[in-house]
Amino acid sequence: MKRSRPVDGILPLLVILILIASACNQNNETKMHLYENKLGIKPARLAQIDTVHFTTIQWIEPIKNIGTMQEGDSAILQFKFKNTGVHPLFIVEAIPSCGCTIPAFPEAAIMPGDDGILIVQFKTAGQAGDVHRSIIVTSNTSNGAKHTLLFEGKVTAKKQT
Q1: How many CB atoms lie within 10 A of CB 73?
Q2: How many Cβ atoms sit within 10 Å of the Cβ of residue 16?
Q3: 156 by DSSP, 3-state: which?
Q4: How are the residues of the chain apportioned to helix, strand and coil, as percentages rounded to the nearest 5?
Q5: Which residues have a Cβ under 8 Å from the Cβ of 102 and sit 6 or more positions away?
Q6: Is 1-161 a CATH 3.30.565.10 domain?
Q7: Cα–Cα distance for residue pair 117/141, rounded to 1 Å
Q8: Which residue from 1, 5, 11, 54 puts its CA 20 to 30 A from 26's CA?
Q9: What letter does residue 55 receive in the DSSP assignment?
Q10: Opening angle at CA 99, ends 93 and 102, nearest 5
């Protein structure tokens, strides 16, 4: 009968502990590899379906007032946000309520604790009167996958000469 030595049981346990420790020491760059693929799918789209790694977002000022503008002018609005979760944040898309509103958002991941800005250009041509516009933002967030940003103001008609 073969006698087992105490060392024989330690080796598998040691290997398991090393694997657990290395998994716990992943940094954010390593986590980004979760979203790499060879299918040509944007990382933001993959992050949207990876619900296990959803994060949270905080919009600093989701409602803005542009005041009164002259028809024909343009306004540039900045909607600031922060990744308040523990996983990378991706903005998947930003859909405006009107063609006069053009959003631009970061396509790269916003890491935990970092800030980002969604920029909106509002073109006032043909928009005389009270203005109430929205942008629906889709992200990989557990505090709502869709977020509504709003801006309002007034556009005075261009005087006919």
Answers
A1: 14
A2: 10
A3: strand
A4: 25, 40, 35
A5: 96, 120, 121, 122, 123
A6: no
A7: 16
A8: 11
A9: B
A10: 50
Tokens describing residue 117:
């800005």
Q: What angle do CA 47, 97, 117 make, to 5 degrees?
A: 50
Q: What is the mean pLDDT of the chain?
A: 83
- Distance between CA atoms of 79 and 141, rounded to whole angstroms? 17
- Helix intervals (H) in the chain: 6-24, 28-32, 43-49
- As a residue count, the chain comes to 161
146-156/101-104 β-pairing = unpaired
Closest C-alpha among 131, 72, 61 to residue 96: 131
User: Residue 98: helix, strand or coil by DSSP?
Assistant: coil
pLDDT tops 50 at residue 146:
yes
- For 57-69, how does the pLDDT look when each residue is reduced to its tens digit (9 = 90+)? 999 999 999 999 9
DSSP annotation of 52 reads G
Residue 135 gets which letter from DSSP?
E
The domain limits of the chain are 1-161
Half-sphere exposure of residue 92, counting CA atoms within 13 Å on the CB side? 18
> Could you give the count of Cα atoms lying within 13 Å of 24 in the half-sphere of its Cβ?
6
Position 23, amino acid: A
